[in-house]
Design goal:
Oligomer: single chain
Number of helices: 8
Shape: elongated
Largest sheet: none
Order of helices and strands: HHHHHHHH
Structural class: mainly alpha
Strand content: under 5%
Radius of gyration: 21 Å
Helix content: 55-70%
Length: 211
C-alpha cells in the first residue's frame, strides 16, 4: 500500500483507538481480541470523509487478522460444526465486501470527472490525485476477488439447509454475488477505465491557456 495512504489510515485511527474501549465483559475469561469484538466497533458514517474511510479500513483489516471467538460467543447461535464452518465463510465474505466498498468509495473521491482547458495549471496536482485514486481502486479489486473466491467455497444450498438466524444480510450478499446481481468487479473496472480516460485528457493539456 502506498505510504501516504497507509499513513492516513493510521493517523485517522490513533485518537479513536485511544478513546474507544474494547469491552471484554461479553467474552469472560478472554483477553485476546477476536473478530466479533472488533466487528462491534465497526460503523459507517452517513456522509463519510477520507478520514472516516481510513478508520473503517483500519478496523476491517484488523478484523481479518484476528481469530474467531469460541462459537459460544459468535454473532449468531451456532449448534453444529457445519454451521460454524458456514458462519466463518459468510463472515469473512462480508468483511471482504465492506473493504471493497470502502476502498472503492474512497478511491472514487480522487477521480476528477471532467477535464477543462483551464485545469492546466493544476495538471500535476490532478495527476497525483488520480494516482491515489488508482491505488485505492486497485485495493478494492483485491478484496473483491477475495470475496468472490470465498463465495466459490460456499454451496448455495447450504444457506437454506443451515438456517442461522442473524446472518440474513450475509446470506443475501452471497445470493446476489452468486446470481451476478452484486458485482463490484464491473464497477471497479468501469471506474479504472474512467480514471485512465481522465488521465489521458489531463496529460494532453499543453499550452492551452497560451493559445
Amino acid at each position: 500500500m502506498p505510504r501516504r495512504i497507509r499513513a492516513l489510515i493510521l493517523s485517522a485511527c490513533i485518537t479513536y483507538i485511544l478513546y474507544t474501549p474494547i469491552h471484554l465483559s461479553a467474552y469472560p475469561g478472554y483477553t485476546q481480541i477476536y473478530k466479533e469484538q472488533l466487528y462491534d466497533l465497526y460503523h459507517e458514517q452517513l456522509y463519510p470523509s477520507a478520514r472516516n474511510y481510513a478508520e473503517n479500513i483500519y478496523w476491517l483489516e484488523r478484523i481479518l487478522r484476528a481469530d474467531f471467538a469460541n462459537p459460544l460467543y459468535a454473532l449468531v447461535k451456532i449448534e453444529t460444526k457445519e454451521e460454524w464452518a458456514l458462519y466463518r465463510e459468510l463472515f469473512n465474505m462480508h468483511i471482504y465486501i465492506l473493504l471493497t466498498r470502502n476502498y472503492l468509495q474512497w478511491g472514487d473521491r480522487y477521480v476528477k470527472q471532467n477535464v477543462y482547458f483551464f485545469n492546466e495549471p493544476f495538471k500535476a496536482m490532478n495527476l497525483r490525485s488520480l494516482e491515489k485514486g488508482e491505488a485505492l481502486l486497485e485495493y478494492s479489486k483485491v478484496y473483491w476477488n477475495l470475496a468472490v473466491q470465498t463465495t466459490n467455497n460456499i454451496d448455495l444450498s447450504k444457506i437454506y439447509f443451515f438456517h442461522i438466524d442473524g446472518t440474513e444480510h450475509f446470506r443475501d450478499e452471497l445470493r446476489r454475488i452468486k446470481e451476478g446481481r452484486l458485482d463490484y468487479g464491473k464497477i471497479i473496472e468501469r471506474e479504472l477505465n474512467d480514471l485512465n480516460n481522465v488521465r489521458l485528457q489531463l496529460e494532453s493539456l499543453n499550452g492551452y491557456l497560451s493559445n
